Task: inverse folding
């Protein structure tokens, strides 16, 4: 992970910039050929996490054929190891809410029947961001082969729609020459689709 924070490009800008570049080149995840049964959605087989939002798009844009991602420690827990010289990919988590002890009108903690303080969910005044570095299964030695389950094929525009629905991120083409990621709404804002050339003419209408 870079140590010079001043020169480090913010995570959301990296996503937006790479997405624009891949859209122009026709290499965005949903623009690539997709074989029946080929798994594409990034996930963590150790924690069971299915990456969503910007993290799912960011990992999918890394061009890896294997959708499995995990941290260095998680790989070690499987008696596997990250190959020497490999560089991880950063994912980011935004914490908008937190659980705190519930109190009464006098500020005293409310104790539940189990003798433990009751908790309530509150919205944080300032969202907190956490980062993690994950490695693709192709960068790790000692993992079992990826199990591919056969699925029926679907049309190109249906693939695009499914990817965007699964990642749970909204992509808005509502900018002139700007691109940014909004953590509050988990949405990416990009320039108008007309600025992107693609071999698939239906792409412009199918990913909106």
Result:
């Amino acid at each position: 992970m870079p140590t010079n924070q001043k020169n480090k490009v913010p995570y959301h800008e990296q996503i937006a910039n790479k997405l624009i570049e891949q859209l122009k080149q026709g290499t965005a995840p949903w623009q690539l050929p997709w074989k029946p049964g080929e798994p594409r959605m990034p996930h963590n087989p150790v924690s069971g996490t299915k990456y969503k939002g910007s993290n799912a798009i960011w990992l999918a844009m890394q061009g890896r054929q294997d959708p499995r991602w995990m941290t260095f420690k998680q790989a070690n827990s499987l008696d596997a190891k990250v190959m020497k010289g490999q560089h991880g990919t950063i994912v980011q988590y935004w914490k908008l809410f937190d659980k705190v002890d519930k109190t009464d009108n006098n500020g005293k903690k409310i104790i539940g029947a189990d003798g433990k303080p009751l908790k309530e969910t509150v919205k944080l005044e300032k969202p907190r961001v956490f980062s993690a570095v994950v490695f693709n299964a192709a960068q790790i030695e000692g993992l079992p082969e990826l199990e591919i389950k056969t699925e029926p094929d679907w049309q190109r525009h249906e693939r695009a729609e499914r990817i965007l629905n699964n990642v749970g991120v909204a992509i808005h083409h509502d900018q002139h020459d700007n691109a940014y990621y909004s953590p509050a709404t988990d949405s990416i804002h990009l320039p108008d689709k007309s600025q992107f050339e693609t071999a698939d003419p239906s792409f412009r209408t199918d990913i909106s």
Observations:
- Residues 11-25 form the longest helix (15 residues).
- The first strand starts at residue 69 and ends at 70.
- Strands lie at 69-70, 81-82, 89-101, 119-136, 140-141, 170-175, 180-182, 187-191.
